[in-house]
Design a protein that fits this description.
By secondary structure, this protein is mostly helical. It contains nine helices and two strands. Strands 1-2 form a two-stranded antiparallel ribbon.
Length: about 280
């Protein structure tokens, strides 16, 4: 098999693995909602165990991406796809984690909430919207459809509205009967997990919009490095002068210098931000 043929086969395998992992995470959310509707504790246990498969796939896909980058040195659209896949796989894995969180709450709710509970019913309704966002997000990513990606982001407003409604319902419930606080917190935990799964969805299609090189420098903003003083390890910033990426015009020279090497030490960029002169 020629080098080019092997490269195309590896790239196709990467796309297939990412699609499979995405479907597993979306299915986990759907199954968690079904377990919630039926108060099926056994199904919930299966969802929690299934999260290990998603975790393994995340590591496998990251390895595939790094292997392609190091051995094949892809350029243009292939480089953008592989870079996007490395971002997407993290968000897809997080969606699987949220499904497991929902499943863990199911046995608790079964004992404290009655069938047809308004807050739980509204949470299930919100979860169905979040699940549709996940499906639409992956379709947008696979098709590199910018309009569909933006539609997913817009759809998050409806989920946010439901989440805020649930919070108000639970607050009123606690105010009326403080003894129900534990049961209300269980529902709030469920709502948080469902809303968080929808928050991960808009991050999935966004990399497909990175076809414009001018968008990429915004990712390397000072805010990206501000977490490093909090104990995060140093992180690698790829330097690709061959892409002709424009420098972010809003960053002072001292800050840009902090990103000029291949590795940024913990706190280096944040220190550069603090030391940079104020904009006139």
């Amino acid at each position: 098999m020629s080098t080019r043929t092997q490269y195309e086969a590896d790239l196709a395998a990467l796309k297939e693995s990412l699609a499979k992992m995405s479907q597993l995470s979306a299915d986990a959310v759907e199954d968690a909602l079904e377990a919630l509707c039926t108060a099926d504790a056994e199904e919930a246990k299966g969802i929690i165990k299934g999260d290990t498969v998603v975790n393994r796939m995340e590591r496998d896909i990251e390895h595939r991406c790094m292997t392609l980058l190091l051995r094949q040195q892809p350029v243009a659209s292939d480089l953008r796809f592989i870079s996007a896949a490395m971002k997407v796989v993290t968000d897809v894995e997080r969606i699987g984690d949220h499904a497991a969180d929902i499943a863990e709450i199911v046995p608790h709710l079964a004992g404290v909430r009655k069938a047809g509970d308004p807050a739980v019913s509204r949470s299930i309704e919100m979860g169905r919207k979040a699940h549709k966002m996940l499906q639409d997000a992956m379709s947008a990513f696979a098709a590199e459809d910018e309009a569909a990606a933006k539609a997913v982001i817009d759809a998050d407003d409806a989920v946010d509205y439901d989440f805020n409604t649930i919070k108000r319902m639970l607050a009123a419930e606690i105010a009326a009967d403080p003894g129900k606080v534990d049961a209300a917190l269980d529902v709030l935990g469920l709502a948080v997990a469902l809303e968080a799964s929808s928050l991960s969805a808009p991050f999935v299609p966004l990399p497909s919009v990175w076809s414009s090189a001018a968008v990429l420098p915004s990712v390397l903003s000072p805010a990206f490095a501000l977490a490093s003083p909090l104990g995060c390890p140093s992180f690698v910033v790829p330097v690709c002068p061959s892409l002709g990426l424009p420098s972010p015009p809003s960053l002072p020279d001292g800050v840009l210098g902090a990103f000029s090497s291949s590795t940024v030490a913990p706190g280096a960029a944040a220190a550069a931000v603090r030391a940079a002169p104020a904009s006139p």
